[in-house]
Structures are given as structure tokens and as C-alpha cells.
Design brief:
The complex is a heterodimer of chains A (68) and B (361). With 68 residues, chain A is α+β, with helices and mostly antiparallel strands. Chain A is built from 2 helices and 4 strands, in the order E-H-E-H-E-E. The longest helix of chain A is centred in the middle third of the chain and has 13 residues. With 361 residues, chain B is mostly helical. In chain B, helix 6 packs across helix 9. Classes of the chains: A alpha+beta (68), B mainly alpha (361).
């Protein structure tokens, strides 16, 4: 599983981060973001790429589990 | 189509209608909204420049910030943060404004000019898309303004509070401000304060909710083949176009005129319309959003965006103090030089940013 930390980064950077990571062809990713816009954008992008996304929230940070 | 896409289309349609109706109620032609022009007018009203034709504290700007602020509070999205390359943002904001005032409008007004039949805005759109393309090349090479950090609520509230102070001055002690005299130019044309404020509040709230961004629309479409934001862009255009056609048919005024010539607050120099908007698109991709989005983020408590708005304000003041802004007669030589300097500086910022990021690994 590839783990990424995009906390503090503004869009589109978290989406660029996950899109570049997905080039590795891994089937499972975990990315942390700390704002809803990034959560929405990364989720939308991953779903378009055919992944399933589950989100957990703690202390204003979102952890997105992205699996194929 | 997903629910969020329908929401942004609906929001875009509402915003487009509001923009056209604001012109009916007194705003300058094709300028129901123009973030660049309105910040420029506000700079003039505060005495930061002396261009007598463009001085008025635009309540739309105050409304957008407060609409975003109030809705983000209600939705628990108010998020005071900052510290992500503030000085770089200020400079990018400054030159984004120089580009806007070369073209005579921000990306929002570019759409409204198109919806009013102003064909000069097509050249602006071509330049804008090219500028966004330039910015994307830097994003792909690793350009980043780095992380933001959480800040105290007082820091996030400072900018919205400043706009409240400006509103109080406008309503209670307008004698402190400078206003364009009737007939002096666009600054003298405006809807009633409360109408402008209400329009701003609605647009600010809708833009906060939908994340509407004129730069993000084209950027995401190119970069990720994601069309959500672009739909908002198209909806504003269509709604403003239809409203303009209806108003032209049902009132004495002309709200749609398909031509290059004789357009209000516009010039016909195609090359510089395109280059001005190229600078705007380029700088705004490196900023992460268009001037409207910066106002909305500043309302959500983002200090970096507030600094960007200050950069826009400074750019507007410089543009009019040093004769950089275009007029209906066309661009000035000083303005052309400033746009070229702006493009060079944006490239330098991009290159330096990528190099320093690579060194850090």
C-alpha cells in the first residue's frame, strides 16, 4: 500500500499527488488530507479511475482509503 | 450526472442571471460582476489611486467575502489557515491584476463580456486557456506553494472583519471615501448598495458551496479530464446570455451586441487582450484559483488568499497610478511593458519554486 500525506496542501496538489502515485499501478493507497475540498476532489478523481474510496475523519483530518 | 454537477450548474445559472440583472439595476455594461474591476474601484475609493473614473467601494466584493464567511461558519467549513508562501502569492496576485486590467476584466467578467456579445473576449479566452496551460506545465513539474498551517480563529476572521469595517464606513461615513462623479466613468455606475451587497452575499455563498472557480474549470478539464467546475463556468455564460437577450428584447437598453466594435469598458487590441489574460491564467494557476475563488477562500479564513487579495488591490493601485491599465482607446505602452515583466516574473517564480522543491527532494 502506498501512503501519502497531503495535509496542508491546497487543490489541485493532493489530486496531482494521488494521480502520480497511481502510475505505480498499486491497488491500494492511503492519503491524508485536511480540508473538505481536497477530500471531495481526491475522492472524485479516484472514483473516476475505477477505485473505491472510504473516508475516516479524526481531528479535522481525513484519511482516504483508496482500493481497486 | 452526479448531484454535485447539478448543484454547480444550478448555482452557475443563478449567478449568471444575477450578473445580468445587476447591469439592468445600474452596474456598468457586461459588468454585473468583475472581481478585478471592483477591487480596482475599491482601491480608488480608498484613495490608493487617483483615476477619477473608477472610484467606488463595491458592495459586491464585501458581499462575496461575507457570503462565503457566513456559509462556511454555518457548514463548519470555516478554517483559519495560512503560511503557504504568502509573499509569492502577493506578487502573483499583483501581476494577475496587471493582466486583468490589460484585458479590462477578470475571468468572471470575461464570461459576462462573451455573454454580452463582446467578441474581443474570445481573444481573452484563448489567452486565458493558454495561460492555464502554461501553469499546468509547472504543476506537472512539481510546482508547489507548500503546506498551510492551522491558525487562530482571530487570524481567519481578520479579513472578513475588515470587509465589515469597509461596509460600515460606506454606509455610515461615506465622506471618508472618494466616489466617481456621475458620468465620470464605470465607477459612477452601480446598483443600489443593498442590492449589490445582497447579490454579493448570494454569489459568495453559492461559490463557497460549489467551489466555483474560473481557472479551476479549465485547469481540471485539461489536467484530470474533470469537468465539474467547467460546468459552472458554462452555466454562468448561458444564463447571462439568455438574460441579456431577454432584457434587450423587453427593455429600452442594449444588453447584447454581437461585435468587436463599440463594446463598453473594452478595447479591440486582440493581441494584448490575449496576452493580458494569458498572464491572468498563468498567475492564477500558480495561485491555485481565480480572483473570485481567492475572495471566497479569504472568507473561509484562508490568510494566504487574503494576502492574494491584497496583492490584487496593490496591483490595481499601481496599474492606475502608473498608467498600466487599458482604456476603451486601447492598451498603453507602459501596460504592455508591465504585462511582459509580469510574464517574466511569473516564469521566474515557477522556475525558482521547482528548483527549490527539487533540492529539498
Amino acid at each position: 500500500m502506498t501512503k501519502l500525506d497531503a495535509c496542508g496542501l491546497s487543490c489541485p496538489e493532493p489530486v496531482i499527488m494521488i494521480s502520480q502515485a497511481m502510475k505505480s499501478g498499486d491497488s491500494e493507497y492511503e492519503i491524508k488530507v485536511d480540508n473538505r475540498v481536497s477530500r471531495e476532489n481526491v475522492t472524485r478523481y479516484a472514483e473516476h479511475q475505477g477505485y473505491t474510496v472510504s473516508v475516516t475523519e479524526s481531528d479535522r483530518e481525513f484519511t482516504l482509503k483508496i482500493t481497486k | 450526472m452526479s448531484k454535485e454537477k447539478w448543484y454547480i450548474i444550478l448555482a452557475g445559472l443563478i449567478i449568471g442571471v444575477i450578473a445580468s440583472v445587476l447591469v439592468l439595476l445600474g452596474n456598468p455594461a457586461n459588468m454585473g460582476f468583475c472581481i478585478a474591476c471592483f477591487i480596482r474601484d475599491t482601491a480608488g475609493s480608498l484613495g490608493l489611486h487617483k483615476a477619477a473614473a473608477v472610484q467606488y467601494v463595491r458592495p459586491e466584493i464585501i458581499g462575496i467575502v461575507l457570503g462565503s464567511f457566513l456559509l462556511s461558519l454555518a457548514k463548519k467549513e470555516f478554517s483559519p489557515r495560512g503560511g503557504s508562501s504568502p509573499m509569492t502569492r502577493l506578487i502573483l496576485g499583483f501581476f494577475a491584476m496587471i493582466g486583468c486590467l490589460m484585458f479590462l476584466g477578470c475571468p468572471f467578467r470575461m464570461i459576462l463580456r462573451l455573454a454580452g456579445g463582446d467578441l474581443n473576449a474570445i481573444l481573452g479566452l484563448v489567452g486565458f486557456a493558454a495561460g492555464i496551460g502554461c501553469g499546468i506545465l509547472y504543476l506537472k513539474r512539481g510546482y508547489s506553494l507548500k503546506r498551510t498551517y492551522r491558525l487562530p480563529a482571530s487570524e481567519g476572521a481578520a479579513f472578513p472583519a475588515t470587509t465589515v469595517a469597509l461596509l460600515v464606513i460606506l454606509l455610515a461615513v461615506p465622506s471618508l471615501l472618494i466616489f466617481s462623479e456621475a458620468g465620470a466613468g464605470p465607477g459612477a455606475k452601480h446598483a443600489a448598495v443593498w442590492i449589490s451587497l445582497l447579490a454579493g452575499l448570494i454569489v459568495g455563498a453559492l461559490a463557497q458551496r460549489t467551489r466555483l472557480c474560473m481557472v479551476g474549470g479549465i485547469r481540471d478539464a485539461i489536467l484530470f479530464k474533470e469537468f465539474k467546475l467547467l460546468l459552472g463556468f458554462v452555466a454562468i455564460f448561458l444564463a447571462a446570455l439568455v438574460t441579456n437577450l431577454i432584457l434587450t428584447a423587453t427593455t429600452d437598453g442594449t444588453y447584447f451586441k454581437l461585435a468587436f466594435e463599440g463594446q463598453a469598458v473594452a478595447h479591440m487590441d486582440g493581441l494584448w487582450n490575449a496576452l493580458g489574460m494569458l498572464l491572468v491564467g498563468f498567475a492564477c494557476v500558480l495561485l491555485g484559483g481565480c480572483p473570485l475563488r481567492q475572495l471566497v477562500l479569504a472568507g473561509e479564513g484562508n490568510s494566504d488568499s487574503a494576502i492574494t487579495v491584497i496583492g490584487l488591490l496593490l496591483g490595481a493601485a499601481f496599474a492606475h497610478n502608473f498608467g498600466l491599465a487599458s482604456s476603451a482607446k486601447g492598451p498603453t505602452d507602459a501596460g504592455k511593458i508591465a504585462v511582459i515583466i509580469g510574464l517574466v516574473i511569473v516564469i521566474i517564480i515557477g522556475e525558482c519554486n521547482i528548483r527549490s522543491n527539487r533540492k529539498k527532494g
